[in-house]
């Protein structure tokens, strides 16, 4: 008989001590979450992520020295190895440059700093189990940015990867890019949620993507989806 599940190991990266303390207080009352360390800058966050192997790094963007974007890029590169941590960014809504730089750096999720403790806790659980997370407000911002006249898409998606998608998997990719949850995809395509989850997993595997956040960026940057369509 198996024992209790291992708690989600979280590393806090923020240059404000009071912020880190507040996050620790919120998270450590949860039985399934353990705060394993704190970092006050990006360089320290990278080193601690490598040493402690957390499941999730809760990452601020603006920090002295190596900022959260550069740290995310380095941690995400390490995450290509089995067991590497996912990065959950805490961002402000009015900085599109931060949002898109962090998306491209490989972050697995985004939260607004004015969110609730319940939202933070659930977001950590989501990215810890390998699912990407975009707040609905941020998904709309992604789509609005790519919908602007003259927005760069990075060209067509790799033809070999697209040919490997079935028609149903391509439909799922389009719905992911629109910010749909598994339940919403299931309703739209008249499928069970377990079937949708399998389709999502195959789409990510075939396109070489780690999570849904990367799928949103891929779809819009490579012209798979057009907001006007």
Automatic annotation (TrEMBL):
<dbReference type="Pfam" id="PF00196">
    <property type="entry name" value="GerE"/>
</dbReference>
<feature type="modified residue" description="4-aspartylphosphate">
    <location>
        <position position="60"/>
    </location>
</feature>
<dbReference type="GO" id="GO:0006355">
    <property type="term" value="P:regulation of DNA-templated transcription"/>
</dbReference>
<dbReference type="GO" id="GO:0003677">
    <property type="term" value="F:DNA binding"/>
</dbReference>
<dbReference type="InterPro" id="IPR058245">
    <property type="entry name" value="NreC/VraR/RcsB-like_REC"/>
</dbReference>
<dbReference type="InterPro" id="IPR001789">
    <property type="entry name" value="Sig_transdc_resp-reg_receiver"/>
</dbReference>
<keyword id="KW-0238">DNA-binding</keyword>
<dbReference type="InterPro" id="IPR011006">
    <property type="entry name" value="CheY-like_superfamily"/>
</dbReference>
<keyword id="KW-0805">Transcription regulation</keyword>
<feature type="domain" description="Response regulatory">
    <location>
        <begin position="9"/>
        <end position="128"/>
    </location>
</feature>
<dbReference type="InterPro" id="IPR016032">
    <property type="entry name" value="Sig_transdc_resp-reg_C-effctor"/>
</dbReference>
<protein>
    <submittedName>
        <fullName>DNA-binding response regulator, NarL/FixJ family, contains REC and HTH domains</fullName>
    </submittedName>
</protein>
<dbReference type="InterPro" id="IPR000792">
    <property type="entry name" value="Tscrpt_reg_LuxR_C"/>
</dbReference>
<dbReference type="Pfam" id="PF00072">
    <property type="entry name" value="Response_reg"/>
</dbReference>
<keyword id="KW-0804">Transcription</keyword>
<keyword id="KW-0597">Phosphoprotein</keyword>
<feature type="domain" description="HTH luxR-type">
    <location>
        <begin position="158"/>
        <end position="223"/>
    </location>
</feature>
<dbReference type="InterPro" id="IPR039420">
    <property type="entry name" value="WalR-like"/>
</dbReference>
<dbReference type="GO" id="GO:0000160">
    <property type="term" value="P:phosphorelay signal transduction system"/>
</dbReference>
